[in-house]
From TrEMBL, chains A, B:
Sequence ranges assigned to domain FAD-binding PCMH-type in this UniProt record: 36-215
Protein name: Glycolate oxidase subunit GlcD
Superkingdom of origin organism: Bacteria
Gene3D superfamilies: 3.30.465.10, 3.30.70.2190, 3.30.70.2740, Uridine Diphospho-n-acetylenolpyruvylglucosamine Reductase, domain 2, Vanillyl-alcohol Oxidase, Chain A, domain 4
Protein family per UniProt: Belongs to the FAD-binding oxidoreductase/transferase type 4 family.
MF terms in GO: FAD binding; oxidoreductase activity
Keywords for the protein's UniProt record, in alphabetical order: FAD, Flavoprotein, Oxidoreductase
Cofactor needs: FAD
């Protein structure tokens, strides 16, 4: 619990109505999408960098942990206040400050919801590609802190590829600008890219300068059903080998298809054991040609059925198949351990076979889908933790899957981050010298360990 | 001078024939493209990470500065051994370790020459876009350390956009791997991107994993002469506004044209006061269409003449105009102060006008050309330092140009880095808190200040 004295200081900084120690607020801000719970001692809603600077200076002086958060949609507990202290909610910093059509950049505050920016720039014929599944509610600050990805990343890259500059409050309360608004810039260390994906441990992001692209003129969506996961994987290889990088190359494995078939009205033939959703975008004549080439390349690879969207409604219907996955999974088992491993794309079939073997051995359903184009698989281990032994089995599965991932040259997280859920597994992926190098950075920049303590590998 | 004892240790690590204290070698490795001279006490040519690790451990124990270098083609003195010690030459680490056509990645050692990798991947229908002007002799290690750019960056981005992972020897001699070979990866801090552009101050790069793209099917080159720099700048805005991002948008100002005209056989009409070289690449039908659109967009903007290359020979002839700039400049005045400021592209005409005013005021020729697409201008201040007062005038010009650049939202370096030449101007661009944050990183990772001391803003 925080002393009253501290609450009075915070009230002085942000105003009385923007700090709360009420149980309801502490409960509301005690969890994220991992559904773990850790209550903060107080919830604070600052409105600008100056206030955040003062809060952090006070926190350093008093030794109070500070946990920045956006929409709390993270999958690894990055924003959970595991040592109590302050939940620093950034949703009041929600302005799109400017969209510069000449220089193709946008400047936003961290509380802007991703989809909101996308709509604003699309209205001007511009494009902000990163598209995490949470984009309708996740905030750009959270996207930057976690380096969010999404289906379109195979062609367009991830969040870090779009962040040109930041305004950041350092752990000790200085307000700094990193990077800028130019496409090139090499003056000093690239703090911008260091901060992207640092999960709120090295600074609080208060402004973001984002690179935009021209909006592609048209897009074309195809759904292809294969009789095996190998066929789908070969199709991915054939398309990339054919020198086409589609906008999306999403896949669903056989377990996912069963899941969708059992729980929705979508008609998916029994013979289908893998699905690819392939989208291409750009010049309308070019994408017609690319779609033709793609179908020619994949056809010999065990295709059960193909559906090429004739218009945007049909495209939407195809994406509905993908979107039905998460809701339909909930019916398999009540509890989900959701990982997002990433392997070099050519190792995808090997990885899926390994996961299937682990699922068979442990007798727990594992549903795999995700971004085949960049080898990023969402592995969903479905258990009922109320049943004895199930949680343990899930943990064994996770460990075996991570080990296999690393053996194939992959990483245990493509886009969700480490947070608290993956922290125990870090020594499997990073060697001690690399962890020491990272810890030295954290310690240098946050000597009192105030900002988001206990996260990533930075266990206290 | 180093004690004999130290030389014996180094010989023990790298072999007698791979270390030298001969005056000739110390002279050869005393300069880079800035033509400043600082002699190292010894030159060492290690062959692998293990040797570099041992050298750095010894250097820490003995307090000897270590200056890594590739081809020494840097423009800001990043590799100059300004405190003596060891010149650590990385050219023996020159293997292309693998080109993975399925996963579109290459793994290389730092001593591989940029063009050599490009040729190797192009032979397989693949593409490594970054194209610094030095690509025929600069090494990939140097490109990564400086975050090299080039004309194609307007469409394809800079070196950092292609570096997926590194093997690095830390300043204290640990060998670590950062990033990996997947397109996505968010486990721990993004050390890869922190190291790119850190100018050899945070680690010695010993392996690089690079992302590749499919080689564009075709390209089309156009040279357009304008009657004013404003016409050329409006053309850039019109093209980007027309939702086309060309591969290159290179410009040359009136002074550059005069220079080329006086010193080569190239025919450039007197009315031409600015040139744009515009190249588009991709699908052959699409680029024809884009070229047509571009010509339609730029035609009303004071076009004096247009030359569309009909084939690769004509394209080569157009690029010859650009390549003739540097040699022809040498005839203007013997000494060149070469800066590479970058402004938001819409501020280009304002920036050029400001530079022209400074040139008029100080009565020294300033030749401007560069990458209009990303606002990156190569500003060449031409003086004769043998004449009294000229060097001082050049320095005044640089300071005024930097001030104007920053006022327009730009940066003093788009691709050349800080090194030693720009270090004195750092306080103009970065605020003290940002510099302190960077210095804290350097100090944490290199506590004995062994690796490339005295560089960037990290003055001792």
């Amino acid at each position: 619990m925080l002393e009253n004295r501290i609450i009075r200081i915070i009230e002085g900084i942000v105003g009385e109505q923007h700090v709360s120690t009420a149980d309801t607020d502490r409960l509301c801000y005690s969890y994220d999408a991992t559904q773990r719970q850790h209550r903060p001692d107080a919830v604070v809603w600052p409105s600008n960098a100056k206030e955040i600077s003062l809060l952090l200076k006070m926190a350093n002086a008093e030794g109070i942990p500070v946990y920045p958060r956006g929409a709390g949609s993270g999958f690894t507990g990055g924003s959970l206040p595991i040592h109590g202290g302050l939940a620093l909610v950034l949703t009041r910093l929600d302005a799109i400050l400017r969209i510069d059509e000449e220089n193709l950049i946008a400047e936003v505050e961290p509380g802007v919801v991703t989809r909101q920016l996308q709509k604003a720039v699309e209205a001007l014929g511009l494009f902000y590609p990163p598209d995490p599944a949470s984009l309708k509610f996740s905030t750009l600050g959270g996207n930057v802190a976690e380096c969010a990805g999404g289906p379109r990343c195979v062609k367009y890259g991830v969040t870090k590829d779009y962040v040109l500059g930041l305004e950041v409050v350092t752990p000790q309360g200085d307000i700094i600008r990193t990077g800028g608004e130019t496409m090139k810039g090499v003056v000093g260390y690239d703090l911008t890219k260091l901060l992207v994906g640092s999960e709120g441990t090295l600074g609080v992001i208060t402004k973001i300068i984002l690179k935009l692209l021209p909006l592609p003129a048209a897009k074309k969506t195809m759904l292809v059903l294969f009789d095996s996961i190998d066929g789908a994987a070969q199709a991915v290889a054939a398309i990339i080998g054919g020198k086409i990088i589609p906008t999306t190359l999403e896949f669903m494995d056989g377990t996912t298809i069963d899941c969708v078939r059992r729980n929705t009205d979508l008609e998916l033939p029994q013979a289908a054991r893998a699905v690819l959703i392939i989208e291409v975008d750009g010049d309308s004549a070019l994408i017609e040609k690319q779609a033709e080439t793609i179908l020619k390349l994949v056809n010999p690879l065990g295709v059960v059925n193909t559906w090429v969207a004739a218009n945007s409604e049909e495209s939407e219907a195809i994406w509905q198949v993908r979107r039905s996955v998460s809701p339909s999974m909930r019916k398999v088992n009540p509890d989900k351990f959701n990982e997002d491993i990433c392997v070099p794309r050519s190792r995808l079939p090997e990885m899926i076979r390994t996961i299937e073997a682990i699922s068979d051995k442990l007798q727990i359903p594992i549903v795999n889908f995700g971004h085949a184009g960049d080898g990023n698989i969402h592995v969903n281990i479905m258990v009922d933790t109320a049943e004895p032994g199930q949680e343990q089995k899930a943990k064994q599965a996770i460990e075996e899957i991570f080990a296999a991932t690393l053996k194939l040259g992959g990483t245990m997280s493509g886009e969700h981050g480490v947070g608290v859920t993956k922290a125990p597994y870090i020594p499997m992926e990073l060697d001690p010298a690399a962890v020491a190098y990272m810890k030295a950075i954290k310690k240098a920049l946050d000597p009192n360990n105030i900002l988001n303590p206990g996260k990533i590998f930075l266990q206290d």
